[in-house]
Amino acid sequence: MTGTLRDLRPAREIRRIPRDAAKLNHSIRLPGNAHCAGSARSGVRTLLTRHGLPCLCDTAALAASELVACAHRFTPGKEMLLNVRWQFDALRVVLYDQHPVHSSPEASEECRGRRSRGMWLLAAAVDACGGDWGLTPVLSPVGGAKAWAVLPLPPAP
């Protein structure tokens, strides 16, 4: 139907957002080692539990872990920044890395395709909960990439 808003939940499905969720906005610097995926998982679980969002712990921890693991595969040993925040009625898990600039747009798109295919588990988990995810190309002339997952609050039981 033309002119309708997509993905609006019926009122009976809307869940009350915990008051502490609005305060959730944390950044975690990770050194870029292989163990960082586990650190990201446990950090996200702790943050969500403290901010009244335990219902998102499993999916958000998996998302953070997958984002970090993928960044480590493409930029091993490089520092990353994981940002976890509640904004616009959804949890946003964003990872910034130091991926190098490619020599051509074709090489950039090929690399982006490889990275996207490597995040199949993230895609499945985020799709299952009605969320969204993505990967941006290099952010600046000196490099860097941004990968993200957006997770809505599940409907009330």
The overall average pLDDT, rounded, is: 86
- Rounded Rg: 16 Å
Distance between the termini: 29 Å
The tally of helices reads 4
Strand tally, please?
A: 5
Strand percentage lies at 15-25%
Q: Strand order of the main beta sheet, please?
A: 1-2-3-5-4
Largest sheet: 5 strands, antiparallel
* Overall 3D shape: globular
Summing up helix and strand content along with how strands pair, one would put the structural category as alpha+beta
Unreliably modeled segments: none
Query: What is the string of helix and strand elements?
Result: EHHEEHHEE
The helix fraction, in percent, is: 25-40%
Q: How does this model look, in words?
A:
By secondary structure, the chain is α+β, with helices and mostly antiparallel strands. It has helices at residues 36-50, 57-74, 105-117, 120-128, and strands at 25-30, 80-87, 90-97, 132-136, 145-152. It contains 4 helices and 5 strands, in the order βααββααββ. A 5-stranded antiparallel β-sheet has the order 1-2-3-5-4. The chain is globular, with a radius of gyration of 16 Å. The model has no long low-confidence stretch (mean pLDDT 86).
